Amino acid sequence: MTNTQWEQLSVQAIAVVAVVYFLAFLAHLVEWAALRRTEARVPVAAGGADLGDVEADGDDDEQRLQRAAVFGRFGVLLTVIGAVVQFVGLLGRGMAADPNRVPWGNMYEFVLTGTWVVVVLYLLLFRKYHLAWLAPVVTGFTISVLMLAQLSLYEEVAPLTEALSSPWLVIHVVAAIIATGAFTLGGMASILYLVKERAGEQTGNGFIARMPSPQALDRLSYRLHAFGFPVWTFAVLIAGPIWAHYAWSRYWGWDAKEVWAFITWVVYAAYLHARATAGWKGRNAALIAIVGMATLWFNFIGINFFFGGSSQHSYAAPASPAAVVERVTAQASSS
User: Fold this and answer.
1) pLDDT digit string, tens, across residues 287-307
2) Where are the domains of the chain?
3) pTM for the whole structure
4) Mean pLDDT score of the chain, rounded to an integer?
5) What pLDDT is recorded for position 174?
6) 81-86 CB contacts, 8 Å cutoff, 24+ apart
7) Confidence at residue 205, expressed as pLDDT on a 0 to 100 scale
8) Which member of 54, 135, 215, 295 has the lowest number of beta carbons within 10 Å of its beta carbon?
9) What pLDDT does 311 receive?
10) SS (HEC) of the chain
11) Whole-angstrom Cα distance, residue 91 to residue 96?
């Protein structure tokens, strides 16, 4: 295949991925709707209804439970297919360059890889931690980020800049993206913890009612952060400075990207320290985790929007708004 064909394959794969994840999102919505209707009938059946009506309602509930299970499995299957196709899209980006390279030479590719890692980690932990309740959140998040990336971050495939042509780029970025995936899932669990805690006993019979207990959400968030923190530490404080030394002849330069990566490290260090020493659990810990996720994604994307031009990490800066409008207009006219 030629470089152009590889790039076209990547573009088509990402388009297919968006559709597949959207269908997975819809499948999970149907699953939760069926479960909600089933649970809503329980108080009615427990009242003074006619026996024949109760049996009919029981048959209907059984059908809804089966339908929910089918759509749930279908949603997970679609998510797996989406992850595979997204990997093909990433592979196409790397193979389209001359010479071939890793698929994270710009912000668009970073986002593609980061969302892929979030989905893969979710699938790997799906059975162990019974994460069916997290499916709509993960698929909805991934669809939204991919749409924003396609609209505002897309760039043509190009060779790596000289600063990126180093084995330490692979080590640094792989570690950073793995940690980003773990922190993102942990942040989602922390947000849902606050939602569940606020709802209290008045959870009804919808999505919130089927989430784990606040204690279980708190434990899951802690485990994900405990896994991600040493990986982020290695990426930011070890691999990153070594790469910077080879690329720019200095280990640390207080670049905007480096400063916010360190701020993110401090926030997550505070989270784990508070859990270990002060016994902070629940709401306080969840708030720190959410602040950490905000600093993480601001460092991941926001820095490149606001400080990309003055940063030595400017290779990751997105295209200007005018360039985005011009590209979208050109695509519309060609179609």
Assistant:
1) 999 999 999 989 888 777 776
2) 1-44+51-160, 163-335
3) 0.84
4) 83
5) 92
6) 81/20, 82/17, 82/20, 82/21, 82/24, 82/119, 83/116, 83/119, 83/120, 83/123, 85/13, 85/16, 85/17, 85/20, 86/13, 86/14, 86/17, 86/112, 86/115, 86/116, 86/119
7) 58
8) 215
9) 58
10) CCHHHHHHHHHHHHHHHHHHHHHHHHHHHHHHHHHHHHHHCHHHHCCCCCHHHHHHHHHHHHHHHHHHHHHHHHHHHHHHHHHHHHHHHHHHHHHHCCCCCCCCCCHHHHHHHHHHHHHHHHHHHCCCCCHHHHHHHHHHHHHHHHHHHHHHCCCCCCCCCHHHCCHHHHHHHHHHHHHHHHHHHHHHHHHHHHHHHHHCCCCCCCHHHHCCCHHHHHHHHHHHHHHHHHHHHHHHHHHHHHHHHHHHCCCCCCCHHHHHHHHHHHHHHHHHHHHHHHCCCCHHHHHHHHHHHHHHHHHHHHHHHHCHHHCCCHHHCCCCHHHHHHHHHHHHHHC
11) 9
pLDDT digits (tens, 9 = 90+) for 98-150: 888 888 888 899 899 999 999 999 999 999 999 999 999 999 999 999 998 88
Smallest Cα–Cα separation from 224: which of 257, 195, 192, 258?
192
Between CA 162 and CA 170 the distance in angstroms is: 14
Which residue's entry shows tokens 């592979």?
91
Instruction: Return the structure tokens found at 210.
Output: 């089927």
